[in-house]
Amino acid sequence: xxxxxxxxxxxxxxxxxxxxxxxxxxxxxxxxxxxxxxxxxxxxxxxxxxxxxxxxxxxxxxxxxxxxxxxxxxxxxxxxxxxxxxxxxxxxxxxxxxxxxxxxxxxxxxxxxxxxxxxxxxxxxxxxxxxxxxxxxxxxxxxxxxxxxxxxxxxxxxxxxxxxxxxxxxxxxxxxxxxxxxxxxxxxxxxxxxxxxxxxxxxxxxxxxxxxxxxxxxxxxxxxxxxxxxxxxxxxxxxxxxxxxxxxxxxxxxxxxxxxxxxxxxxxxxxxxxxxxxxxxxxxxxxxxxxxxxxxxxxxxxxxxxxxxxxxxxxxxxxxxxxxxxxxxxxxxxxxxxxxxxxxxxxxxxxxxxxxxxxxxxxxxxxxxxxxxxxxxxxxxxxxxxxxxxxxxxxxxxxxxxxxxxxxxxxxxxxxxxxxxxxxxxxxxxxxxxxxxxxxxxxxxxxxxxxxxxxxxxxxxxxxxxxxxxxxxx
Length: 474
Prior knowledge:
about 475 residues, about 0% strand, globular
């Protein structure tokens, strides 16, 4: 019974081979953010809130990157399962071309109008000054972040998950060293405060893709290091195929990001102390979520390769295992968060510069977050790990955006500005009204199997055969 539910040796060997390096890499990336937050928190909750608000601009960019890379992973995995290297190269070239435009725009606006961006969240003079000084420098890390993201997705989807993990280890250690040195003037470096944190981020971010490209050039990787002419040798039909599946994902991530951005505007306008508490929560969310990102990515790669390679029944079985496994692990994680939240939050106040209101709020919303964690992770794996890898990129978009914009944001705005509820109730309302209706819709769609939409010819033929067999059974 347990073997049927959770899979045998094949399943677990593949999951661990993919999930562990990805989880470690994401944990290291999250540690990168944790180090930044811990260092900046020593400067006080005004600086902590300001950097958190500035980080929302890069977070919007990251969602754009995630939209393109998630869409690309569908093609990378299915083409790799079908051994179509030419298809992988064309997808890689399309993504690089369009991401270049997005990165240029985010970098330009972040550099030219940083105060206008920060003022969306809070108009306190100190917050505007600190946040804009940080953002104007940090934007130069954006091209490196984009390169690192898409190359990492390509390597993981084609069976090379360990190299991005090793590179993340190097950049995380480097970032910690530079943060401590440039913020506080250690190791013979100048004490630059908030600007030092931004400079450390830029330097560390660029080391990542440069290291990966160096290894790929040395190994003569035929995809990552393919000539520009080959990467850009995509036709109008290739673009049409890509954007038919990719556009819903990109729109989903951008509008979902805009929705979350709107929620953060609501939170931050209730007081910068509350947003400082949210910054602490998000830092731990990144750490905790890193492990589940690894499992979700292994789901996306495994199910995508199986559907693309024509193994429809295996893909469905593995998808079921993932959407059972992740909520179970999430419940255990939630218990640990609730029990340890006081100790976790206190890490950020070792200097005594964080106010009592910020600390108390962070502890309370961490408990709310923990209670909602299993259902959030279930939704994450079913939409981005199962539906998208199966080729269905539209359904998740409809569910995500409708529930967030109509229910989550509406509940937060009304509870904050109409009923004037306390901050914790506003935060809880945004989660519950967003997640619960979406969970019902996702469960129904999963069991309909309408999410299976192969992009390879092998997958399409196998799925037609699978449907014929199911019709005979029924």
